[in-house]
Amino acid sequence: MNMEPSDSVRPNGRQRKQVLLGADRRDHEGVARSDSEAEGEALLRDSGSDAEDDGRPAVPRGVRGELGNVCLLLFLYILQGIPLGLAGSVPLIMQSKKVSYKDQAYFSLVFWPFSLKLLWAPLVDAIYVQRFGRRKSWLVPTQYLLGVFMLYLSARVDALLEGDGGKQGPDVLGVTAFFFALSFLAATQDIAVDGWALTMLSRENVGYASTCNSVGQTAGYFLGNVLFLALESADFCNKYLRVEPKDTGIVTLSDFLFFWAAVFMVTTTLVAVLKKEEGQQERRKRRRSKEEAQGVWETYRLLMSIIRMPAVLTFCCLLLTAKVGFSAADAVTGLKLVEAGVPKEQLALLAVPMVPLQIILPLIISKYTAGPRPLDIFYRAFPFRLLMGLVYALLVWWTPSVKEEGGFPLYYYAVVLLAYAAHQVALYSMYVATMAFHAKVSDPLIGAPT
Q1: pLDDT digit string (tens) for 110-146?
Q2: Which of 3, 15, 179, 295 reaches 20 to 30 Å from 144, CA-CA?
Q3: Percent of the chain with pLDDT over 70
């Protein structure tokens, strides 16, 4: 599928080149040029090269010349993964407290902001403080708010999860509301970081943005989910980390939230003070383009004109329906295994061997998504991921029959690990392919690939 934006929505790209080439050809033929053609040539001459015009800085060829920017993007995506990982750990905690699946369904609303961020992405693109920076105007306050919310939640989360003295169970609506706010802020941060990646990296290296996204979010999710569940588990800490057993883990959810609140505050201050948005000031000194000066409503109108494109409508339908076949298996398998008696900390530990795989996979897959048809990997991985839904269903059905008095045998965890690894290959193939496609067709003038 070729979803290249039309010339009418790419004012700084292909259209101006065609106008200039056509004007030159007619000059040689002795035909007078129109005013619009002359204006197109003037705009192209004023804007400079394509790399400068779209805001990407001129850097030495190769990723080594932009290693600092790549590391910064990776770190920002790691921070983004922390609240996502914490949100992913809460259902397992609530499942151990015998929360109903109806309440678990309420909590699943926490992850909706990442699916709906297109609704407020134009606001992030159109409203900013020019002197501070287009992306930093949203990135810095959003990360400060994430720190503030984590700090406040660290003082309330124990009471929310225990309910009224532990008699009524967790306050599901309260927990959902707080983590929904964290997810909303993380999604807004994602919009800002995705947009900054398009101008922070040069055109030849912009494909690394999807790699930073997948690797960074994976690392952040691991820290907020797997590491937290392991350190919070008394059984795991007594077995592997302590000499004398205790009734609690090394950290609590409150402690973990407080620590990351401090990390968000400190690192956001450093980014705000030390990091400049390369290419922005130089480009504004040359010219203030009409597209960059457009307001909120103009941005929404431009967004609607893009959405109405036939190829975009087809792609939206694909994304809206692609997960129907495997969403239930992805969401419920872990909860069903905990219900069958598998310790939640053991499930979390199974993700540890996956971390090297999750980091290496995007690097391998990016070699195949860097070409002109990145979605080919998406299409090839799709039926395999559907098959993994059937594998997960069989795994849930098989689990009660292999349970022993002392727990589950080693070969059971080996089978779960193998199934999880196969699922990760399919999941990351689809995810990296989609992100690479978005980065390839996105225009920095209207923001990030959402």
Answers
A1: 988 988 888 898 888 888 888 888 899 999 999 999 9
A2: 295
A3: 78
Phi (first) and psi of residue 440, to 5 degrees: -70, -35
Write out the two tokens for 133. 């920076």
Query: Each residue of 296-326: b (16+ CB within 10 Å) or e?
Result: eeebbebbeebeebeeeeebeeeeeebeeeb
Phi-psi label, residue 33: left if phi above 0, alpha if psi -120 to 50, beta otherwise: beta
Distance, CA of 155 to CA of 175 (rounded, Å): 13
Helices (H), 308-374: 310-321, 327-339, 344-349, 354-369
Q: What is the largest CA-CA distance in the chain?
A: 92
Q: Which amino acid is at 412?
A: Y
Confidence of residue 179 (pLDDT cuts 50, 70, 90): very high
Residues counted in the chain: 450
Give the number of other Cβ atoms within 10 Å of residue 190's Cβ.
24
**What is the 3-state composition of the chain as percent helix, strand, coil, each rounded to the nearest 5?**
75, 0, 25
pLDDT category, 278, cuts 50, 70, 90?
low
Please state the pTM of the whole predicted model.
Answer: 0.69
H-run or E-run covering 428: helix 410-441
* CA quadruple 194, 198, 200, 206: dihedral sign: positive
Q: Is 180 exposed, middle or buried (0-12, 13-18, 19+ CB in 10 A)?
A: middle
Express each pLDDT in 414-426 by its tens digit.
999 999 999 988 9
Q: Is the dihedral of CA 76, 78, 80, 83 positive or negative?
A: negative
